[in-house]
Amino acid sequence: MSQEEKKAEESEDKKKKDPVKATFGKERVVTESSDPARELYNQSRFGNLLDNGDVQLSMLESLYLLEKGKLLLADGKGKKIDFASFLKRAEKLEPNFWVRYGVFKDLRNRGYIVKTALKFGADFRVYDRGVKPGEDHAKWVVYPVHEASTLTWHEFSAKNRVAHSTRKRLLMGIVDDEGDVTYYEIAWKRP
Hints:
Layout: H1 3-17, E1 20-25, E2 28-31, H2 35-44, E3 48-49, E4 55-57, H3 59-67, E5 71-75, E6 80-81, H4 83-93, H5 97-109, E7 113-117, E8 122-127, E9 140-146, H6 153-165, E10 169-175, E11 181-186
Parallel strand pairs: 1-5, 9-10
Antiparallel strand pairs: 1-2, 2-4, 3-4, 5-6, 7-8, 8-9, 10-11
């Protein structure tokens, strides 16, 4: 291998390892317009690709990538934001954020692609391993719940009805005080 090829290979390796730079403003996290940012979207479906080439990340995706060391986050003035301070800001902006993050992180660590499911009336839609949004439909809708929370029968039924009407499986992700997640799949059964 020539000296030039070695330098090109080292440069490629460095690009893959360098975290993506992003800016947090109000309730949005937007990456720089770069190949590594688009690669996060193309390979793992983090965020939404914007027309200008930037990638807009959700608060959950941003925290996850911060924790994994794949994101360098700054505010609008260029001041670095670390994991703890971003978590604090996110918890102020989004109700139930830590419980939602526990489920998001667990599913992502298991290799699933997790996207919001607001239009389905759920927290997340989850794609089976190897399936990317747009290629096929999500397999599950997921509701993260803290173990000490309660649901009325009406709320429980509504969640099941949403999953059934969208032809998705319903998962309840129960998060305990230690952050461990247990999943329960709920389905309609005919007697």
